[in-house]
Amino acid sequence: MKPADELELAEMIRAAKGPLRIVGGGTRRIGQMAGGEVLETGGLSGISLYEPGALTLVAGAGTTLAEVEAALAEGGQRLPFEVPDLRGLLGRVGASTIGGVAAANASGPRRIQAGACRDSLIGVRFVDGAGSIIKNGGRVMKNVTGYDLVKLMAGSHGSLGVMSEVAFKVLPRPEAETSLTRDGLTPAEAVTVMSRALGSPFEVTGAAYVAGQVRLRIEGMAGSVAYRLGALTKMLGGGWAVAEAAQSSALWVEVRDVAAFVGQPGAVWRISVKPSAMPQVLGIMADAQTVCDWGGGLIWARVADTGDAQAAALRGYLAQIGGHATLVRASAAVFEQVPAFHPAPTAIAALATGLRAKFDPRSILNPGVME
User: Fold this and answer.
1) Check: CATH 3.30.70 for 259-337?
2) Which residue stretches of 242-277 are H helix?
3) Domain boundaries 6-172, corresponding CATH code
């Protein structure tokens, strides 16, 4: 099924006799594929509003990310949250859609400075599991009265409703970009350095740790970048190399897309913890290759794709210190015994079940995807 507009989408959902598998570009699905009849959102496409002066873009959920980014680039702007392209990591083909980006709350290295996808999402239209059309938010940033369904839909992976339209706040593209890199640091040293950089007044927009190398990024007006770069280098001491423009951008594409794992075998975890816990988490991941982003708060770990892929040890440790781990890539045998999403605490699980019952009373939208 491929509805051409929102009304047709609502009619299809109301008429559904069983589960529906919601598909945008098919590039961001995590875990086992949901069963049911495929419902594609690609027909709900097109940019309906783009006002560069108001920093606002509205598009159909099936609009490709490439089309959105091209329109913004022409206006000298961009999505603030640096959307990851995980097709290589997950072995997928196809074109990512802007609705899929929102449904996955896909957020890259700039999250530490600009916020996550949900922080830039200012309005949604969607159809719930009963076939009702719902609108929430708008085309400007404002305080929310009542339920903030915009934030709820971001990261729901199609389990609460099928988005038909999304509205985003956008930002100007920076005039300049420069990165500092330093090799040979231990995880503990890396966390200390990244924390100092992020706690400084120099507006660091990227802080990552890859194969013993710390990477720090500064963006903005050329004069401001030059000043902040010098001040940050002085504060952190010597031993730093400088990468500018395209060279700097390439460093962050590698981090954003977890390029180090592309084409490499193994199961892949996406681990969220407080940055100070990063060294300890790396210490319990036996023989893991890691890429750490968000100042240490996001850890990608590639491990052997056997047994439970270290799930018991990892999630058991996170239960003690706080955090969660999502299994984003693994064999069918591993996924049969390990849920992709981190098991939620009892109270949160009950709340999530209640929300799904309210928005999807027949349990037909991507059933089991987030369980």
Assistant:
1) yes
2) 245-256
3) 3.30.465.10
